[in-house]
Specification:
Order of helices and strands: HEHEHEHEEEHEEEHHHHH
Number of helices: 10
Helix content: 25-40%
Shape: globular
Radius of gyration: 20 Å
Length: about 290
């Protein structure tokens, strides 16, 4: 009963919750970028749609531990939250969801509603890429119908009372079917070599936005390239990893190798729009250098 719309508004209506659309949530590091009261979200924002018909989605890290909602659920002992976990509240209308992303292992439980899952193993970047890629609704509408049997994801529809375990490094995206509320737990730290390396690259990726060429920046770029090249060795079929190698190579002035790597990403995934844009960016910068 504590999880009904009416009861949540009654108990927690004044509490601020962050919401966002599927791409923005991933761009924001796993959190909404629009803050409102829970009451306002449920009474108004929950049903608002953008031009693609995608509504906002609550993706919140603080609500669950600050409430007594977990005490209303019965979870197996091995899924009980620990000090090493982040807890999440997910709340949204039909067609809301989150774009493809990955992280340390965790689990997700649906309280009410239905959640459709799309999953790919670590060695296979989802067609079209993860962030920056497609909104999950656009991916489902425009890419999914054209996928071959070999390109199709693992899929399921999660029902109320069901728990889905997410192995570390598995790409996953979701679309809600009807109004849906769910909770999730996720480990803060990676445990496998692949995801530990990915976490390290994330810490260094800000260097791509730097226009400086100081010894410190160059050293960071070299370190990032070494990590990305190690990941390509571990995941040779992952288009995302080849694109990121290309970006690091280009930043270090290794243009020919950068073009080879971004083309490899495109060859692995013809739907990878951002890889095409990256290649175009490389061509534009090279032409400016020549001019």
């Amino acid at each position: 009963r504590r999880w009904t719309r009416e009861e949540m508004v009654k108990r927690y209506g004044r509490q601020t919750v962050p919401s966002g659309r599927s791409q923005a949530i991933v761009r924001n590091g796993g959190g909404g970028n629009v803050g409102t009261s829970l009451r306002k979200f449920i009474s108004k924002l929950m049903e608002e749609r953008d031009s693609s018909e995608e509504p906002l989605y609550v993706f919140d890290r603080t609500f669950v531990p600050e409430s007594d909602l977990l005490s209303a659920l019965s979870t197996p002992p091995y899924l009980q939250p620990t000090k090493d976990d982040d807890s999440f509240l997910f709340l949204g209308a039909s067609k809301s969801g989150v774009s493809f992303h990955k992280h340390a292992d965790g689990w997700n439980g649906v309280v009410w509603g239905l959640k459709r899952w799309f999953l790919y193993p670590p060695e296979t970047t989802p067609p079209g890429g993860s962030w920056p890629g497609f909104s999950q609704l656009d991916w489902l509408t425009h890419l999914y119908p054209n996928l071959t049997k070999e390109e199709m994801p693992l899929e399921c529809v999660q029902r109320p009372g069901e728990i889905l375990y997410l192995p570390e490094s598995y790409y996953h995206g979701t679309v809600n079917i009807g109004d849906t509320v769910a909770i999730g737990l996720q480990k803060r730290e990676a445990s496998t070599k692949i995801e530990k390396l990915c976490y390290q690259t994330t810490q260094l990726e800000k260097v791509h936005g730097s226009s400086e060429n100081t010894p410190e920046v160059i050293e960071k770029r070299k370190k990032l390239l070494a990590l990305e090249e190690e990941l390509v060795q571990l995941l040779p079929g992952a288009s995302e990893r080849h694109r990121l190698v290309a970006v690091s190579l280009f930043g270090l002035g290794q243009q020919a190798r950068a073009f080879d790597s971004v083309q490899k990403a495109i060859d692995l995934d013809p739907y990878f729009v951002f890889a095409y844009l990256e290649k175009a960016r490389f061509h534009l910068k090279v032409s400016r250098i020549i001019l």
